[in-house]
Amino acid sequence: MYEVLLYDGGVYRINELYELIEDVGGFIIQKTQVQVQITVTLAIPEEEKPAIEAKTVELGGKLISVPLAGTEIAVIAPTLARHHMPHPTCDIAEQLRRAGAITIVMGLARGKGRRTSQISADEIAIIEEYDAAVFVLGNFRDCILEHKTKLFEDLEVPVVVVCGPEIESLPYCEGLICGVGRKIERMRREEEIYKLEEISNRVEEVIRQKRYELDEDPLFVHPAEIKDRIAELDAVQRSLRPAPIVLHLDGLRVKIPYEEWKDQIADVEVYGRRLGDIARISNSRLGNSTIIRIKTRAEVESG
To answer: Whole-model pTM?
Structure first.
């Protein structure tokens, strides 16, 4: 399994790090340079971490674990109106970003009220585009147990639920963190910061388990390898949108229009094959974006 790390150091001799990453079978996910300082997000096989650590020490940099890098996670509240107090939702999203994830905050169209709350087919389809979903619910135990589980019971992506009351377990979710309900202020106190770290750790466990499942039937190529080739498209290079290419555990989101660029994306060559032959390319429900799901080795060989 690949481990995602962040190198923080100077640009002097940085090519030696790039060569070592390539030699051990790893990938560079992202590079950000500011004058003579550079941060590099990289993915390497877990067993090769000592070699990267030794080179980091030699170059005078530091290595930071970013376990959620290469993922896109949806943080969802029944509504984003003051009825549900969006402060904890935003704090949770920010905590996940610090662990390396790309996050979006989403409010459901009909989330207010225990009997009227619901999730539409379109909202389910949007959430399914992400690697995981974090549902931030309220303070009432019976409301959550009897009515709110229907919001995520049909989702295929891993779900982590955050709520106020102490609940032993919930169906249809892979993780449950209690003690965070509606709040009218940001989570700044020491105990609240510990709770944010607990949420982040639980999401990391869920993502790690999904990575293990993917390793049982590995993808034909790592998403980072496709990213380098997609980045050469004119539409991507001209894009002014932040992070025009976002990595997922099993593919990528490319923020260019699907209908206009689907054929060019499908014709991108990856190890002598068309991308359209080794991946499923579809239109994103969010508009002006394209979703690429990489097929497994077994699917490509049998196809």
So the answer is: 0.89
